[in-house]
Amino acid sequence: MSPETSATAPTPAHAPSADGPHTDHHRLRTDLAGLWGDVLGTGPVDAAADFTALGGNSLQAARIVARIRTRLGLPVTVAELFEQGTVSALARLLAGRPRDLGDVPPAVTPAPGDGPLLAPAQRRLWFLDQLSPAAGAAYNVPALTRLRGPLETTALDAAWQDVVDRHEQLRTVFTLSGDVLRAGTTGDRAGLDLVDLTGHPDPYGHGVRAADERAARHIDLATGPLGRLTLYRLAADDHLLLLVLPHLISDGRTLDVIDQDLAHAYRRHAGRAPDQAQRELTLAYRDFAHWSAALDQERALGAWRSRLAGAPTVLDLPADHPRPATRSHRGSRLTRTTTGAQRTAASHLATATRTTPYAVTLTAYATLLGELTGRQELLVATPMDGRPDPALEDVVGFFATTVPLRLRPCGDPDRPGALRRAVRETHGVVLDAAHDQHMPFEQLAAELAPAGDLSRTPLTQVALAYQGPRRPHARLDGLDARPLPVDNGTAKFDLTLEIHESGDEFEITAEYATDLFTRERAARMLDRYLEILAMVVHAPEARDADVDVAGPGRLPAARHSAPAGADPRCLHETFAETAARHPHSVAVTDGTRSLTYLELDRAANRLAHRLRAHGATPDGLVGLCAERSVDLVVGVLATSSPVPDTSRSTLGTPPPGCATPSPTPSAASCSATPPPAPRCSTAKPAPSSP
User: Is-above-0.70 flag for pTM?
Assistant: First the structure.
């Protein structure tokens, strides 16, 4: 990417005048082609090339839009860029458009004075840190890299000090003076902490575990420097490099910035000529903090009220443990890699729908959550870049914003192409939210979420973060650098999916709250997500009725008459078949409790054994008295099913000492209508009673 000018640099000679439209269509098209190429890393693009076919995503679109506003002075939205699709079409749209930026946020300009300033979002994270050290640790941002080759530790130490000197946020500390939170700087040197593991019998395994443990430590925000760099020496030419930053001064892009700056400084201190000049920083985080504090949020707040009016702010996934009164932030992580070139397939679907792979993966996630909960709509949190000016792209700091997306699982089940429509709809929701992404999350939560509930995150309890390639700039000259995942034993939400691109595949990590879920359940949810994602990307043209997207977790819709040729099998037989195929999908929910097919099968078996022990016979009558609840369904299955032969059962396990033989049930217990094949649906599951 070529060096860029400041947002406050003089307007190009061929840009529109201060009060008039851009009249030179050819020059505008040339400018746009150059801006696209800067962001996409391709050089000037063909004016007829489609943005999504070039591999463009929503983050890159936002960066292009920021450049158009700051360099050309023209108002444009991310949605318009996707709608037009090509440089030529966008140039036609913008030609003749006046320079009235309307409700676009103002430009970022240098803040008066000197020294660090606090952004509104930083206050929220500081408060969370003070509320609970565990919450602070959950918001640590770790980065682990394995370095193989001849590492010059003195050069690395000096390079890290250069990076800290370059970025004020890495020298910033936060203190409370009376009732006022203040940001200041520390003069303490940011040293490299060296840990020698060469004498350990398993230096790599021990080093990874030590890195996980160090990444989980609470960072005192009043004592700097806040960035901690640790080097674990495994052998003379093998090291693990761990960087841990508090989220208060960093975000995902910050890691890319540090990777690039550290590589540049290391090359210089190692005595090698830098491969290119380092870009001068024309704006600092304090300028962004001043800008964000001065934003008029009334219009944005009104837009968010409209978007989220009536949206459900509580989403309870099927859990193994009761939700504690206060979140502990304890968590764990699981990672899976897709198969079948799913990232490539997602890119093809994104190109066909003029969306992004992010929208594809988000649609699959909404479908999974709908399957697990039966919800017709839900809120999913997602991070956005939050940098409003190109001059801030190389600045370290906490710019990222969290926005709640109001999503509908799946789409219309009765027409072909529903999956594509669902992806487009999700994409539209993302673009709409991006327009008002600078609204502080805590302000949204205060307005729209119930107050005082410390058991869950406000507004939404699930999140998805599409990260792209894992730290593509992690490299040091003369070394083989490979980024590694870190599990610091924390979770910010009940369930978060992190999506990384890895060649033709996705590497997908589930971060889950261990207060709620066992590792087995988290693994089932992640595996089911991979199944749904594969269905979405490989069958975009299929009718939803022919694709098992909604999966076995949905109860079939009730039918009032049997179609011709209906399966004459009994209810317990069709249930057993479905349960054997999908034991860990949700079978029934009543809004308070949920049971998987396996759990429902076991509960019905236990009740059937108790009924048999109390004298119930195959042809006898058993009365059921229950609310419309999970218990009623358990009762129906228990009375219509034979007591299973445990020597053949693959699901239920009766209590020890119970008899296993069972007579055949009466014909009266048989269902005239088999359940239909699962299909994609936005409807709620059938009621919990038959």
Answer: yes
